[in-house]
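User: Can you help me understand a structure? I only have the sequence.
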Amino acid sequence: MPTTDTIIDIIRAVYDGGTALNVNSGGTSTYATQIDEASATVTYVGKAATGAATASAVWQIQRLTTTGADLAVTWADGDSNYNNVWDNRTSLSYN
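Assistant: Let's start by predicting it. Here is the structure, written out as tokens:
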């Protein structure tokens, strides 16, 4: 089973300190990234434009859940749209 620290290290490597690859343009775009280790088995990862308020509905949010050796990645509202509020991450629906 991956540890929470291992998962966080992977997340940080993927987001590279908030810089994510923009596949459509071939360049990079800078995002604000929030990581919340809610428990030993649940971690939330949010991404939005730099300077976005956590209370604004402009966040893309993932929930990472570990069960045994399995890691499940689900999206707020079941999609990767930038239309969620980071402050509400624990009460959103994930699929």
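Now, to help you interpret it: The chain is about 15% helix and 45% strand. Residues 4-89 form one domain. Let me know which part you'd like to focus on.
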